[in-house]
C-alpha cells in the first residue's frame, strides 16, 4: 500500500491528507445503507492508513452519515480533518436548495450535534441557492468562523463568478467539484479561477461514479436504490460507447501494472499539488487499492494519451440526472429570462425597423438624444426583471440609478473643456458595459441550471454556440446601444493598451493560461503586456471579432497604434523574413541590485536585521520600493512649492512608514531552528522541474516554512514607537528583485491590508505571508526568466499607514498607449487600490493629461461594480469590505470641474516625480479628502 502524505488545501492554512475518503456511499445514494459496525471499522482503517480527510453532508441519509461519523470519531476527533456540507433539503419530499442565513446557521448547529464535535474543519455550501445572493450566505458563514463553529469555508459545484463573489466576502479555502478522467468541464473556468485565487480543489467521484473501476458491468450490480441506475451515462444508449473508454484505460493500466481505478486516480493526483481527490468506498480492500494509486507515476505523454481516451466528444451522456436539479429555482429564473428575451426581441425588432444603431447614432451626433429614451427605458425594465429574480439586486439598482441619472442629465455642449457629446457617450458606455457584464453572468447562471437542454436545442436548430450561450441576455446586454455609441465616438471598436507590431498565428483561446500552469507574474493584462513589451489590443466590435475568427490558424501581421489597428494575413514567402536570429543574452542588462550579491554564496544573509525608519531606508538594506518611499518622503516637502505652468499644485503627502529590513526573515529562521531546512529547500527550488508538480511541491514546502516565521518581539516594540499602536496598517513587500528597471512588474509579491499592532497575531501572520510571497511559483519563475539566482532573493517588509482612500490611482508619466512623453495617463478606481491591482472585472476612469498644454481628455468612465474599503470601526483582520458603487453619485463621473482639477493635479505630481527620479515612472497613490498621497513610484517599463 502506498504512502499517504500531507498537503496544504488552499492558502488559508488547512492541511489535509493527500487523498481523502468520501463517506456518502456508506449511508445513501449507492444502494441501501451499509452495516454500521463495518463502516466504522473502515473509517478507523482509513485513519490508521493516514487517510484523515473525511467528507460527509447533512443530506447523506439524510443525517445518518453524519451520525455514523460522529460515532466513528469518538475519542479520535483530533486525528482527522472533518468536512461536511449544507444547502440541500428534501422537506415534504421535494428537493430544495437553500442558502438563507437562518437555514445556514440552523444546519450548522444540527451538524455539530450529529457529528458530536465542537467545530467543523471545512464547511461547504453543497449547492448554490440562486435566490439568495452569495454575499448574504457568505456573511453568515463568516460570522460562524469568527464564533469558532467552523474553521474554513468551501463551496461545492459553484460557478467561477460565484466563487469570485464569495471569495471577496471571506476567503474560500476549497471548491468541491466532480473531476475525473471522463468529467472535465470544470477545467474551462472553475479550475483556473481557483488557482488564481489560491483556492484548493477537492475532486469528488474521481473514479467516474465507479465506472472507471469496473466498466459497464457495474450496471448489473446496481440496485433500484442506487441513483447511478438513472444517470444518463449508465443508460443502454450510452453504455456501449462509454465502454470503449474503460477498455482503453484498463489496457493502459495492465501495461503499467496497476488497476484501472488506480490509473484513473493517479491521473487526478497528477493535476497538481492543489488537488485532493476523495474517492468513496465501503470496502477496506478497495481503500487500500485507492491509497496505492499515490505510487502510480505518469509521464506527460501518458497523461495526454489518457485524456485522449475520454475526450469531450467520446463521453456519451450527461454526468448528472437533470431531475436532480433544484426545482424551485427553475421557474423563477426561467420566467424572468423568458420574459426578458421576449421583451428584448420584440423591442429590438421595432428599433431595427426605425434604423437600428445607425438611426440612434445619427440623432446623437446631431445632439438629439431624446430618441435614446425608449431603448434606455426598455433596458431599465429588463434590469428590474433580473432584479426580481433575486440576481445581484444591489448591482441592478445601481445600474438603474445610473441610467436614470444619465437620461435626466442629457447632453451638454461642453463639460469643462471637453466635448459634451463625447462625454455623454463615454459615460453612458461605461454603464452599458456594466449592464452587459451583469446579464452575461445572469445567463451563465441560467445555463448552469439546464445547460444540456439549451445546447441540444441549439444543435437541433443549428444555432451558433455563441448565440446559444447568450439566448436570454444577448439583447439586454445592450449590444445595439453600444454599437450606436461607437459610431457617435468614431470608435473602431479597438482599444490599444500596448502599441507596436507583432507577427504570429491567430488562435482562439477560452483562457490565457493552460490548466495547471500559472504565469510567472499575476497582473492586470494590460500591465503584463506593458511589462513584457507584448502588443496588446482588445476588440468589442462583434463584426471585427467574426472577421478575426476567419483568420484563425493563419500567420498574420498585427499593427497597433493610437490611430489604427490592422490585422492582415501574410504570404508564406514573407514569413521567414520577419524573425531575426535569436539574440544571445547579455549579462550586462540584468538588474544591478542583485548582481553584486552573486558572490554571497549559499550562506544565510542576515544583514542589518531589524526595524529602520523610512528616512534611513536604502535599496541595499530594504529594497528599491522602501528606498523609493524614503525618496518620496523627502520630495513631499519639496512638492509644496511646485506648480505646473497652468497653476496646478504638484504637492502630495506620504503615509507614515517603517521597514523591517533584509535579514530579518533569516534571523527568524535561525531563531526557530529552521535554517537547515530552509537552505535545503532553496537548493531544491533552484533546479526543480515545472513538470509533474515538482516545483509546486517545493514551493509549497518553502512557503509553509517561511510563512510560519514571525517578527521578533523587539521589532514589534520598535514599530510601535514609530507608528501609533491603534493605526490601521498595510504590510507590503520590498524585495531586492522588485521595482527595478527591467524587473518592475507589479503584483508579484503580496501586500496585506487592514492589520494593526493592537492585534499582534494578525500582524505577525501578515509579515510571515509577505516573506513567504518571495517563494510563490510565479515569483520563482519570474526570477528564473530574469536569470536571478533564487538564493540571492531577499525580502524586506514595508509597513505603512493604511489610508481611507476615496479614489486610488496609477499614473503612467509616459503615455503607454502611444509612448507620448508629453502626456501623463491615469487609471483611477473608487476606494482602495486593490481594485486596480487584482484584475477585477470592469473599467477604471482613464484620464490623459498634457504636461505642457494642460489639456485633459477623459478616455473611459469607471464601471467597476464594487469598491473596496476599510471601516475604521471594523476588525483589523487583514480583510476589506466591498460595497456596490453607484457612479451617478461619484464626483469624478458627474462633476467636470472636479475631474479637470484632479486630472491637472495628478499630471503635475506625475511630471514632478518623473523629473526628480530621472525617468518615466509608474506612480501609485490615492486621494483622501482633498489630499493626494503617493505610496510608491517605480520605473515605467
What does it look like?
This protein has 941 residues and is an alpha+beta fold. It has 5 domains: 6-324, Alpha-Beta Barrel (TIM Barrel); 329-489, no CATH class; 494-578, no CATH class; 596-626 and 656-801, ATP-grasp fold, A domain (Dna Ligase, domain 1, 2-Layer Sandwich); 807-939, D-amino Acid Aminotransferase, Chain A, domain 1, CATH 3.30.470.20. It is 41% helix and 16% strand. The strands form 9 sheets. The chain has an 8-stranded parallel beta sheet with strand order 3-4-5-8-9-10-11-12, covered by helices on one side. Strands 28-27-26-25-31-32 form a 6-stranded antiparallel beta sheet. Helix 4 links the parallel strand 8 and strand 9. It is globular, with a radius of gyration of 29 Å. The two termini are 54 Å apart. Its cofactor is Mg(2+). Residues 313-322 have a biased composition (Basic and acidic residues).
Set down the secondary structure blueprint:
Layout: E1 6-9, E2 14-17, E3 21-22, H1 36-48, E4 53-55, H2 64-72, E5 81-86, E6 88-89, E7 96-97, H3 101-115, E8 120-125, H4 134-146, E9 150-156, H5 160-169, E10 174-178, H6 190-197, E11 200-204, H7 211-214, H8 236-256, H9 260-269, E12 275-277, H10 284-292, H11 300-309, H12 329-354, H13 356-365, H14 373-388, H15 393-409, E13 414-415, E14 418-419, H16 420-449, H17 451-460, H18 465-469, H19 479-489, E15 494-498, E16 500-505, H20 525-531, E17 536-539, H21 542-549, E18 555-560, E19 565-569, H22 572-575, H23 592-595, E20 611-613, H24 619-639, E21 657-660, H25 664-671, H26 675-687, H27 694-707, H28 713-722, E22 729-735, E23 751-755, H29 760-772, H30 777-786, E24 795-801, E25 807-812, E26 823-830, H31 834-837, E27 845-850, E28 856-860, E29 866-869, E30 881-884, H32 891-894, H33 896-917, E31 921-928, E32 931-939
Parallel strand pairs: 3-4, 4-5, 5-8, 8-9, 9-10, 10-11, 11-12
Antiparallel strand pairs: 1-2, 6-7, 13-14, 15-17, 16-18, 18-19, 20-21, 21-24, 22-23, 22-24, 25-26, 25-31, 26-27, 27-28, 29-30, 31-32
Helix pairs in contact: 1-2, 4-5, 5-6, 8-9, 12-14, 13-19, 14-15, 15-16, 16-19, 26-27, 27-29
Amino acid at each position: 500500500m502506498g504512502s499517504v502524505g500531507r498537503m496544504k488545501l488552499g492558502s488559508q492554512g488547512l492541511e489535509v491528507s493527500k487523498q481523502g475518503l468520501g463517506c456518502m456511499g456508506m449511508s445513501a445514494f449507492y444502494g441501501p445503507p451499509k452495516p454500521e459496525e463495518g463502516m466504522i471499522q473502515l473509517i478507523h482503517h482509513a485513519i490508521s492508513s493516514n487517510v484523515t480527510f473525511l467528507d460527509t453532508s447533512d443530506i447523506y441519509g439524510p443525517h445518518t452519515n453524519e451520525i455514523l461519523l460522529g460515532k466513528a470519531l469518538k475519542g479520535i476527533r483530533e486525528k482527522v480533518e472533518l468536512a461536511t456540507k449544507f444547502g440541500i433539503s428534501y422537506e415534504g419530499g421535494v428537493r430544495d436548495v437553500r442558502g438563507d442565513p437562518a437555514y445556514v446557521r440552523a444546519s450548522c448547529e444540527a451538524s455539530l450535534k450529529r457529528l458530536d464535535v465542537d467545530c467543523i474543519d471545512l464547511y461547504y455550501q453543497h449547492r448554490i441557492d440562486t435566490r439568495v445572493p452569495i454575499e448574504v450566505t457568505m456573511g453568515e458563514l463568516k460570522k460562524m468562523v469568527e464564533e469558532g463553529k467552523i474553521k474554513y469555508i468551501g463551496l461545492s459545484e459553484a460557478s467561477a463568478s460565484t466563487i469570485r463573489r464569495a471569495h471577496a466576502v471571506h476567503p474560500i479555502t476549497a471548491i468541491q467539484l466532480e473531476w475525473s478522467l471522463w468529467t472535465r468541464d470544470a477545467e474551462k473556468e472553475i479550475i483556473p479561477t481557483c488557482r488564481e485565487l489560491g483556492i484548493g480543489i477537492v475532486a469528488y467521484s474521481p473514479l467516474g461514479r465507479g465506472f472507471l473501476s469496473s466498466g459497464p458491468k457495474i450496471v448489473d450490480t446496481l440496485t433500484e436504490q442506487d441513483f447511478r441506475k438513472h444517470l444518463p451515462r449508465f443508460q443502454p444508449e450510452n453504455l456501449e460507447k462509454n465502454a470503449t473508454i474503460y477498455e482503453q484505460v484498463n489496457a493502459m493500466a495492465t501495461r503499467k501494472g496497476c488497476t484501472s481505478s488506480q490509473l484513473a486516480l493517479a491521473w487526478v493526483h497528477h493535476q497538481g499539488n492543489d488537488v485532493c481527490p476523495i474517492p468513496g468506498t465501503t470496502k477496506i480492500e478497495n481503500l487500500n487499492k485507492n491509497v496505492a494509486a499515490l505510487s502510480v507515476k505518469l509521464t506527460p505523454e501518458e497523461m495526454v494519451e489518457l485524456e485522449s481516451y475520454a475526450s469531450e466528444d467520446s463521453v456519451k451522456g450527461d454526468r448528472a440526472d437533470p431531475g436532480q436539479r433544484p426545482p424551485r429555482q427553475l421557474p423563477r429564473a426561467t420566467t424572468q429570462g423568458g420574459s426578458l428575451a421576449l421583451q428584448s426581441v420584440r423591442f429590438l425588432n421595432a428599433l431595427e425597423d426605425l434604423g437600428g444603431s445607425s438611426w440612434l447614432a445619427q440623432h446623437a451626433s446631431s445632439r438629439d438624444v431624446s430618441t435614446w429614451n425608449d431603448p434606455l427605458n426598455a433596458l431599465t425594465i429588463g434590469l428590474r426583471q433580473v432584479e426580481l429574480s433575486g440576481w445581484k439586486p444591489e448591482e441592478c439598482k445601481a445600474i438603474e440609478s445610473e441610467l436614470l441619472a444619465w437620461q435626466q442629465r442629457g447632453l451638454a455642449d461642453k463639460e469643462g473643456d471637453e466635448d459634451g457629446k463625447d462625454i455623454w457617450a463615454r459615460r453612458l458606455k461605461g454603464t452599458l458595459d456594466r449592464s452587459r457584464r451583469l446579464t452575461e453572468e445572469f445567463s451563465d447562471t441560467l445555463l448552469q441550471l439546464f445547460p444540456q437542454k439549451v445546447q441540444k436545442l441549439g444543435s437541433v436548430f443549428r444555432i451558433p454556440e455563441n448565440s446559444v450561450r447568450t439566448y436570454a441576455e444577448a439583447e439586454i446586454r445592450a449590444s445595439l446601444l453600444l454599437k450606436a455609441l461607437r459610431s457617435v465616438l468614431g470608435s473602431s471598436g479597438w482599444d490599444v493598451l500596448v502599441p507596436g507590431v507583432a507577427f504570429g498565428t491567430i488562435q482562439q483561446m477560452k483562457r490565457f493560461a493552460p490548466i495547471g500552469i500559472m504565469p510567472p507574474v499575476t497582473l492586470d493584462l494590460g500591465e503584463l503586456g506593458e511589462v513584457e513589451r507584448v502588443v496588446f489590443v482588445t476588440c468589442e466590435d462583434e463584426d471585427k471579432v467574426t472577421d478575426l475568427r476567419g483568420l484563425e490558424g493563419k500567420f498574420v501581421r498585427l499593427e497597433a497604434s493610437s490611430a489604427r489597428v490592422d490585422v492582415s494575413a501574410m504570404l508564406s514567402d514573407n514569413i521567414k523574413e520577419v524573425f531575426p536570429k535569436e539574440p544571445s543574452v547579455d549579462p550586462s542588462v540584468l538588474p544591478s541590485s542583485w548582481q553584486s550579491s552573486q558572490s554571497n554564496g549559499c550562506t544565510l544573509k542576515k544583514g542589518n536585521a531589524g526595524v529602520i525608519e523610512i528616512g534611513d531606508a536604502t535599496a541595499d538594506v530594504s529594497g528599491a520600493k522602501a528606498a523609493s518611499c524614503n525618496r518620496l518622503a523627502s520630495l513631499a516637502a519639496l512638492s509644496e512649492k511646485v506648480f505646473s505652468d497652468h497653476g496646478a499644485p504638484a504637492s502630495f503627502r506620504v503615509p507614515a512608514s517603517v521597514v523591517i529590513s533584509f535579514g530579518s526573515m533569516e534571523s527568524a529562521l535561525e531563531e526557530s531552528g529552521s535554517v537547515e531546512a530552509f537552505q535545503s529547500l532553496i537548493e531544491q527550488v533552484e533546479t526543480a522541474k515545472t513538470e509533474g508538480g515538482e516545483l509546486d511541491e517545493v514551493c509549497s514546502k518553502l512557503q509553509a516554512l517561511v510563512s510560519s516565521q514571525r517578527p521578533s518581539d523587539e521589532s514589534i516594540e520598535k514599530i510601535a514607537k514609530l507608528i501609533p499602536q491603534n493605526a490601521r496598517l498595510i504590510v507590503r513587500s520590498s524585495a531586492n528583485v522588485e521595482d527595478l528597471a527591467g524587473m518592475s512588474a507589479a503584483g508579484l509579491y503580496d501586500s496585506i491590508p487592514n492589520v494593526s499592532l493592537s492585534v499582534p497575531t494578525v500582524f505577525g501572520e501578515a509579515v510571515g505571508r509577505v516573506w513567504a510571497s518571495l517563494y510563490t511559483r510565479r515569483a520563482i519563475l519570474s526570477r528564473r526568466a530574469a536569470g536571478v539566482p533564487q538564493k540571492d532573493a531577499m525580502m524586506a517588509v514595508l509597513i505603512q499607514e493604511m489610508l481611507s482612500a476615496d479614489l486610488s490611482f496609477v499614473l503612467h508619466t509616459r503615455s503607454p498607449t502611444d509612448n507620448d512623453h508629453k502626456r501623463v495617463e491615469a487609471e483611477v478606481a473608487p476606494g482602495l487600490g486593490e481594485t486596480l491591482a487584482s484584475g477585477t472585472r470592469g473599467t477604471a476612469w482613464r484620464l490623459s493629461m498634457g504636461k505642457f498644454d494642460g489639456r485633459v481628455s477623459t478616455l473611459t468612465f469607471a464601471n467597476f461594480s464594487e469598491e473596496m474599503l476599510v471601516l475604521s470601526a471594523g476588525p483589523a483582520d487583514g480583510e476589506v469590505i466591498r460595497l456596490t458603487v453607484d457612479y451617478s453619485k461619484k464626483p469624478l463621473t458627474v462633476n467636470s470641474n472636479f475631474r479637470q482639477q484632479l486630472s491637472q493635479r495628478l499630471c503635475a505630481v506625475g511630471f514632478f516625480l518623473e523629473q526628480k527620479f530621472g525617468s518615466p515612472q509608474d506612480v501609485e497613490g490615492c486621494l483622501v479628502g482633498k489630499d493626494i498621497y503617493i505610496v510608491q513610484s517605480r520605473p515605467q517599463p
